[in-house]
Amino acid sequence: MILPRCTVMIVTLGLLTACGNRGEDVTLTRLTNTGDGPDEFSILPSKPLQTPESYSELPAPTPGARNLTDQDPKADGVAALGGNPAALAVTTPAASDAGLLRYASRNGTQPAIRETLAAEDADIRRSYGRVNVLRFGPRDNYADAYKDQWLDSHAEEERLRRSGIDTPSAPPKED
């Protein structure tokens, strides 16, 4: 009677260890919010309240606009490093980028490119969203959804070299 119990325990222990972690955290690349709690990175503490020098110089309240006590991490980081936070608000390209922009737009531009890409991306995610509903095995939904669009860097390097374009050395191809 002891032998079958021992055998069952060993088999059970073996099955449990086979279901264990593969040595890498696959859940970090799922890119889905699986919890029902708040997103810790979306909560920013507000700046402390300060009495203005003149109440008459305060901007008029604008519904939906930023509050004076709202955090602005990018502007705060630029200011902390000695830069000008107002430079972040510039909406026109720098004059030094004129040549680059002229070359990039030499064949024309598509004004609604962001909307087009957003619609195409939504179609990809919608079509892939029904595939792994039961979640059998450790799957990486993000990688699986976009795998057809990945660039094969080694094949591209070979293509460029065959065309006579010098390319930097690359790490060896993984098997």
From TrEMBL:
InterPro entries per the UniProt record, alphabetical: DUF3035
Pfam families to which the protein is assigned, alphabetical: DUF3035 (PF11233)
Disordered as annotated region, ranges: 46-80
Protein name listed in UniProt: Beta-barrel assembly machine subunit BamF
